[in-house]
Amino acid sequence: VPTAAIQLNGQDELTFMHSFTEGPLVENLEGYISIHTEGKKKKHKKQEEEDEYDEVPEEEVQDDVVAEAVYRNRFAQLDFTYAPALTDKTFPATLKEKSLVVVVFYLSWDARSAAFLASCSEASLALKDETSNSSPLARVACDDWPDVCQLNNVTSYPTTKAYRNGRFLKDYRGMLETTALVNFIRLLQLPAPVELKTMEDVTSFREGLMSTGGTNTAVLGLMGPETQEEVATFTSVAQELQGNFLLGLVKDKELAEEVCSSYGCTAPAVVVVKRDDPYQPYKLFSGKLGHKPSLLNFVRLTSLPVFPELTPQNFPSLFSRDQPFVVLFGGRGEELDNVGQIAATGELPVIFCQMNVFSPDSLGAELLQFYVPNAGLPALVMVKHKTGGVFEYPYPDDLTKDRVSAWIRGCENGDIKANNELQEEKWAPMMPGYDFLAFIDAEKEQAKERQDQNVEVVTHPEDGNEPDEEEEEEIHPDSNRLGHPEVKVHKHSEL
User: Fold this and answer.
1) Nearest to 216 by CA among 311, 262, 281
2) What's the whole-model pTM score?
């Protein structure tokens, strides 16, 4: 006391502010107004989309959102000028003709394949070479050329494989979307590792000028002529990670020492430089340089920012670490800095991330409402995906290291009870499907009734005359077909 609260029109709940001073109070008010306004816009847009399809019975809408989205966009025209379709004859010829070829193997009737082909089309336009008037991308329809797909060990669809100088290089295992595919191919077009001979090369490499936007991470190997084993290990790691990371190698000892001086280390050394991480701009490898598995694991784990914005793109990478998430919703200024500095220490076995609840296209507000209904801003929430426990930090005005660390340890040890529990969802059908056997039975009954009526008409003619024995009964061309069910059918061309 004093305090302030917001009550939206038509709702009973009060949402209390954590601070009554003028600055934070105004920011919180702006944030809530923004969330409420954007929520109404999204609801109106969603209603318009639903109205467009409200004539379609719910049974006719695909449970699979990808399949439904592909069906709705079935008339979209894709430009495959720079991603040609290959056959059993042109496939080997293309591999010999180009030094790098990335081939998408797909099924023309598969929804995931159709969705990824749209990204493939966009990627080919982004990667086209004006000189050769082509791109590294190509495609093979496995329902037309199953022998080509079988020879290339394609067992799932879509599958994307890279070939260099006519030989298989590696599989693409990234997201099925345009940007990730473009970045993968651009990184494959660079050497692995990139040899850095001057300080200008090192500067360009660290600033991302060599990667052409393919990655925000630069991995520097600072070696010398006497470190042959370490150089061989680093080169092997660079080749294995090619397409996902860009690694640069300095072999000149004097240049390596000069670069090491800016990171407070001595050659030989490996440094991961993260241009998109203000809280941990770089990290030194502290393991044995000649041990390949340790170096691979270090690059993969260290490449992401320590306090990133949580998005659908980086969620799989973060979730694979098998640790609880600690998410800051609606943080600004000092709040972000405090949590970011805690994350940079690496002392706590959790994954720190943030979500913006003020951006119009952000999922943050919706997710926060799902985790902790009617929470104030900023909100620090821990989510244990293994157990389903959701914990809300009770001191949003005090985001100091000691207090946040103590709260996280209490949640981990079981000393603090969860505020909410995530419910386990079952992937069941959205609604019961059609009972086609009942349709058939109904059609049989209707056919029998029509037959009985025809017999009655023939047996009791209205004019009292005997029916002409030679006169054949006129049969409707569709009379022997099953009738349509009593629903408005929304036909799918792919069925």
Assistant:
1) 281
2) 0.75
End-to-end Cα spacing for the chain: 64
Rounded to whole angstroms, how far apart are CA atoms 378 and 339? 12
Integer CA distances (angstroms), 447 to 443, 459, 461, in order: 6, 19, 21
The closest alpha carbon to 160, from 176, 147, 145, 183, belongs to 176
CA pair distance 458, 476, nearest whole angstrom: 17
Q: Which of 72-76, 142-146, 438-442 has the highest mean pLDDT?
A: 142-146
Query: pLDDT by residue (tens digit) across 127-166?
Result: 998 778 889 999 999 999 999 999 999 999 999 999 999 9
The DSSP call for residue 425 is: P
* Contact between residue 358 and residue 336 where contact means Cβ atoms under 8 Å apart: no
- Of 221, 280, 268, 279, which is closest to residue 245 (Cα–Cα)? 221
Give dist(CA 93, CA 148) in Å, integer: 13
Rg (CA), the chain: 31
User: pLDDT tens for residues 203-215?
Assistant: 999 988 877 777 8
User: Are 190 and 248 spatial neighbours (Cβ–Cβ below 8 Å)?
Assistant: no
Question: Three-state SS string across 325-345, please?
Answer: EEEEECCCCHHHHHHHHHHHH
- Residue 214's closest CA among 192, 241, 181, 238? 181
Q: Is it the case that residue 471 has pLDDT exceeding 80?
A: no
d(CA 100, CA 164): 5
Mean of the per-residue pLDDT values for the chain?
A: 84
Which residues make Cβ contacts (< 8 Å) with residue 327, sequence separation at least 6? 310, 353, 354, 355, 380, 381, 382, 383
**Joined tokens for residue 295:** 């170096």
Which ranges in 414-472 belong to alpha helices (H)?
A: 436-459
Question: How many Å separate Cα 421 from the centre of its chain?
Answer: 25
Residue 284 pairs with which residues in a beta bridge? 271
